[in-house]
Amino acid sequence: MKFGIWDKENFIGILTPKNYIQYKAFPGEHLFLARAENWAVIKGSLEAGKTYYILASPRMGAWKARVAMEVLRPDDPRLNEWMRSLTPSTVDPGKRDAYVQEWLEPVRKAVENIEAGRADFIVINPSDGK
């Protein structure tokens, strides 16, 4: 199971089991998308100097895995254990451009649907960071 993770049209990385992605986002509005059989979306505003956590997890799909995302509160008791047991994920620079080229148009269409109110999303609030 691999999920492509995006911040609007900015490719962040590929999330795989037993890994996490660390992403330094600028303050302000963001639209985080995860791609599998479906799109999972988190939208909201981030504050400078805070750390936010988003959990992406697989769900059963018709043809392949689906993805769900949820905003984790910084006091979630699972975070410490997860961060000790997971490994940071990095993008292979040799594969990055081809992946972005392949998925950029579907990402743009997903963003268009979200911004037009034709897709659901979860909200991340500035207070969700620490």
If you had to describe this structure to a student in words, what would you say it looks like?
- This protein starts with a strand and ends in a 6-residue tail after the last strand.
- The chain is α/β, with parallel strands linked by helices and 130 residues long.
- The strands form 3 sheets. It has a 5-stranded mixed sheet with strand order 2-1-4-5-9, with helices on one face. It has a two-stranded parallel ribbon with strand order 3-8. It has a two-stranded antiparallel ribbon with strand order 6-7.
- β4 and β5 form a beta hairpin.
- It has one domain.
- It is built from 2 helices and 9 strands.
Q: Can you tag this structure with a few keywords?
A:
five-stranded mixed β-sheet, single chain, 24% helix, 130 residues, alpha/beta
Low-pLDDT segments: none
How many distinct domains?
1
- Residue share in helix: 10-25%
Q: N-to-C SSE series? A: EEEEEEEHEHE
| H/I helix tally | 2
- Supply Rg: 14 Å
Strand order in the sheet with the most strands: 2-1-4-5-9
Mean pLDDT: 91
Q: Let me know the number of strands.
A: 9
Task: Output the structural class.
Answer: alpha/beta
How much strand content do the residues show? Answer: 35-45%
Main pleated sheet: 5 strands, mixed
Molecular shape: globular
Q: How far apart are the first and last residues' alpha carbons, in Å?
A: 30 Å
